[in-house]
Design a protein that fits this description.
Elements (H helix, E strand, L loop, with lengths): L10 H38 L7 H26 L4 H31 L6 H12 L9 H18 L6 H45 L11 H18 L3 E8 L2 H8 L1 H17 L6 E6 L2 E7 L3 H17 L10 E7 L6 H17 L5 E3 L3
Parallel strand pairs: 4-5
Antiparallel strand pairs: 1-3, 1-4, 2-3
Amino acid sequence: MNCLKVAKISKPLMREFQSELILENSRRFLYILLLVIISQIVFITLELLRVLPWQNDIFFSRLGVIAACLLFIFLLRMLRKNAGKEKPLLSLGYLLSSIQFICMIVGCYFVVNEFHSEIRSFSAYLLVAFVVSLTCVRTPYDSIVNVAVFAGLTVYLHSFVEPMPLWVSEFLIALVCVMLLFIGNILNHNRSIRLFLKEKEILSINRELTEMSKIDTLTGICNRQRLTEAIEEHIQLFKRYKHTFCLAILDLDLFKEINDTFGHNAGDIVLYRFSSQIQSMLRSTDVFGRWGGEEFLLILPDCSDTEAQALIERLRNTIHNAELMPEIHVTFSAGICAYREHKTYSELVSEADQALYTAKNSGRNMTIVFEA
């Protein structure tokens, strides 16, 4: 019996699940309504061709069914367009529940008519109950209405049409079908929740893996892939909103000597502590990452080349005076380039690299701004 208990998840996730459930059920209902319209058109065609007997009242009933289905399709499509908003989504759920209830009443109507015609069958209602079970809205217990309406239909037939002993076998068969649909609805709902949670878990893992793929494993800052994306993003922001930015390439001076003298492990520690020190002094909007080896790249939004140079100089002086490791003195050189209109990604990086090359050849431990 534990499998019949409705699975419990957190309220935010349940709201998200129910939203997806409503959208999925509305899509199913659209297909069902289209199928009903096609079936009514087929019946009308067969009646016009005299394959089936023609009856005026049945013809107008079919037209009424088609008109009602078209109205529901129009309302469903209109609400689905705005389903991203809370109120239209809630209205969509209520509309689906209303359509379900109307379908059950129509099913009851046909069953009563059949009983009056001495055809003791619940097939019309069972068909509707099956459709309702396919389009459960919000919770699986919505389908309890099926059971309640079936009970009311049974009482009405027994009280006003024919006593139950005359159709008890049909009643028992229909009761078993209704209960099976109700139980199946709960099982299907729980399965849908499990699949929803598994999908959320997979998406979360994929997001984490995507973020990890953009992080440098040694320093914990952005890697070249993420930096490349960030440069392209800032170029697009400039084209749309004229948001200026500067690019700086930082290169540790004589880093090969640190590796050769103290070992690669010491070099890795220097890289890690250097990146941590720089990162701690930047704004939240700045993008800092490892460009490759001992080279680092810094994107400074809303910043002129003069302001960028002042910032890099503060960073350079801090590193120059810091002791990242005992007996190891670390300095860096930097090349800066401000983005200008119509400049490409490769041109921007190349100009910053040229400024860095000038700084290296001018004695190191200095900052040079590229001049066009």
